[in-house]
Amino acid sequence: MASSVRDEFTKGLWRTVPPFRLVLGLCPTLAVTTSGINGMGMGLATTFVLIFSNLFVSLLRKLIPTQVRIASFIVIIASFVVIVELVMQAYFYQLFKVLGIFIPLIVVNCIILGRAEAFASKQSAILSLADGLGIGIGFTISLFILGLIRELLGAGTLLDIPVMWASFEPFTFMLKPPGAFVALGILLALMNLISQLQARKGGSR
Amino acid sequence: MRVIIRMVVVLTAICAASGLTLSVIYRVTKTPIEYQTIKFVKEPAVKKVLTGYENDPILDRVKLTIGTDERGRPVELTIFPAKRNGKTFAVAIEGKGKGYHGTIGVMVGVSRDETLTGIAITTQSETPGIGSRVTEEAFTSRFAGLPAKGELSVDGISGATYSSRGVMAAVNQAVSYATKFKGELF
Fold it and tell me: Of A57, A99, B40, B105, whose CB is crowded by the most CB atoms within 10 A?
């Protein structure tokens, strides 16, 4: 039991890390990662929704008739998204202003509905919680790294602190949507390279 | 039949629980949200038009009823007073005027002796690079020091006549409020 909880948690961190391995949830991934902080804020908001939607879907899985399961999942997910939106607006207004429309759009983030449908509706609450936490943290780290790369190249700062030399001319291209695709593609290629090297070392995997 | 009843009951229960939770969260976050909105949208403008105050104009804001809308509900205006030694010596009032694209909101500072202490644009959606030049210091500084009564007018920005007029209309609206409610404000 303990090992499988760990398994469900760690798979979200590398093996099925959402934007890279599953290539899911790309809309927020590409749109809001203009800086490290924005990426992390979006990731944490999604993680919160994911954990609680997984937990509640799993707890209610025996009560919810299969015919109305998607409708029920969406109501559960939407409730937590509204909670995140209100809390963020009340206590983290600047982040709320930057993320804007992408907060309500978490409702239709396919990672969350995907985990509810594919995992939480079939597994126990503890496993679902571990799954939500793992996938959520994996998503947050991915967005954070992507945000850092784009911020570094596009604005010459890391977490709003200038780090590049004085004559550095920022690639503003990296802050625009095409730059997001390029950065995502390079990261994806790097991850695949690492996996292949690992597989060659390990022999079979 | 039993399945249908179960479907209805479960979905209704989930929706009801969700609605209840959200209404509680909404009530809890209502005041902080209102404060944050004022702080981040209005405070920068208020700070620009008022100087030398010892209080927090955001915290000391007062609401005045300035009339009723077509349905008979009261229309409220938020005033930000600047105080020194406990006495209000200037207020910031937001006025609205019609620009080239939609409404321009202007925070206007009016002092006790009926002088404009300054203006700052709060909201606008004018053409970037043309009408949006009304937000620049070079234009907004033209208002500071003018007498705050009657119809004001300053030189507009060439090429941005409508936007300049929108700002003037907003300033005049704010000034008219200040004149009308002078007794209650100071």
Answer: A57
